[in-house]
Amino acid sequence: MSDRHERSDLPGGLIVLTEPVPAVRSVAIGVWVRTGSVFERREEMGVSHLLEHMVFKGTATRSAKDIALVLERLGGSLDAYTTRENTSYQARVLDEHKDIAVDVLADLVLAPVLREEDLDLEREVVLEEISTVEDTPDDLIFDLHAEQLWGGHPYGFPVLGTRESVAAMTAQALRSVHQQEYRLPNLVIAAAGNIDHEHFVDRIGALFRDAPAGSANGRIVQADALPPVREFVERPTAQTHIVAGTSAFEHGDPRRYAMILLSNAFGGGMSSRLFQRVREELGLAYSVFSFQSFYRAAGMLGVYVGTRPEWAEKAESVLMEELARLATGGITADELADVKGLVKGQMVLSLESTGARLHRLAGTALFDEPFRTVEEVMALVDAVSLDDVADLAAEFWAPERQHVLRLGPEA
Fold it and tell me: Angle, to 10 degrees, between the axis of helix 386-396 and the axis of helix 333-350?
């Protein structure tokens, strides 16, 4: 499997990366802006996400309909998303249409018109999106748990914002964020697929040379989790949803590979401990899993289960039992060998997608990490020992460390 890649650092701090995959006829292209909810003030929660929506309402040269049609009529796709730390605009097209895709992405990122009348409409769309989350308790509980874990730190802010913050947003506020954040040193542009690096760099240089300069976003204020608590949020739902989780280390910590293995062994698939105990043995849930997220200045991990209200106490008790067993005993040698095979296999299979390659490639710049080949990553996975995962289990997975949140009807 080819792992060839190239990087060019353009004037102003713009980073351009490519990973050629000559065997395919497509190209996945992405523009990342180093801004997201972690850079927002409380009164402007959701401004990065709303801005991401608004750029699609029209640019200096394209209407909203033009933006929707330009790649779709060629069989391509255009999408965007906002996270806690980044905003991304992406296109996937046939290789012969890559220059058009780059032009559209540059137009979206650099030249949105951000009209007040468009905001009045798009605000309603985002408010509907917030309503969708509120009506989806197995999504909502993760926003509530992040707030429980991080408190007033922006890592605890909902990426979508709140009804109040979105309702109060003005077009001038969006223009201000665009002017301050959408500048050269905050941009990472990557492409994976049937692509020539020099040609791609030339196109990016021509389209982005007039982008605002300046300095990159500063370091994120260190996030300190609050002391563990156990809370119940009443909602008239058919299930009770439970998350137990805690803070962890940031993305750059070398223990990340051991933690990914440990989390997967505990609740990452059908063969995991949680799935086998909670679902297969006890029949307490349809959905039960572990999760982990690593950010630039923090991390978090935990477990989720959704169960009928009458089984909530039992399900939570079993979660705590399994957490205690993991914290005191770690995992077995067989479990570690199995999960290494799982993680390595998933990694290799994912890289058959140009989209997955694109995200891996951009991540090297976004997290200031070296590009690692598949073989190098596999070696890091293979190097994880039973002692490594046992130490992490004892430090992070003990029941008394967990922030526990239950969402559902009254018991």
Answer: 90
HSE-CB at 297 with a 13 A cutoff on CA atoms is 17
Asked if 310 and 378 sit in the same domain, the reply is: yes
Across 324-336, b (16+ Cβ under 10 Å) vs e yields ebbbeebbeeebb
Q: What would the mean pLDDT of 87-93 be, rounded to a whole number? A: 98
Q: 264: how many CB neighbours lie within 10 A of its CB?
A: 22
> What whole-number distance in Å separates Cα of residue 169 and Cα of residue 178?
14
Total number of domains in the chain? 2
- Asked whether residue 221 is assigned to any structural domain, the reply reads no
Is the Cβ–Cβ distance between 101 and 27 less than 8 Å? yes
To 5 degrees, how large is the angle CA 138–CA 139–CA 144? 100
Residue in 19, 5, 3 with CA at minimum distance from that of residue 358: 19
Q: Which residue has the tokens 């994880």?
A: 384
CA-based nearest residue to 328, from 397, 246, 400: 397
pLDDT of residue 1: 52
**pLDDT tens digits, residue range 358-400?**
999 999 999 999 999 999 999 999 999 999 999 999 999 999 9
User: Taking all residues of the chain, what is their mean pLDDT, rounded to a whole number?
Assistant: 95
Instruction: Please give the DSSP secondary-structure letter assigned to residue 279.
Output: I
Question: Could you count the other beta carbons within 10 Å of the beta carbon of residue 281?
Answer: 10
Residue 207 and residue 240: Cα distance in Å, rounded?
51
CATH code assigned at 52? 3.30.830.10
CB 264 within 8 A of CB 342: yes
Q: Per the structure block, which two tokens stand in for 44?
A: 């402007």
pTM of this structure: 0.94
Taking every pair of Cα atoms in the chain, the longest distance, rounded to a whole number of angstroms, is 63
Catalytic residues: 52
In order of 174, 377, 393, the CA distances from 29 in angstroms are 25, 24, 38
Q: Structural domain of residue 375, as residue ranges?
A: 230-408
Contact 352, 28 (CB under 8 A): no
Alpha-carbon dihedral of residues 368, 86, 250, 1, nearest 10 degrees? -60
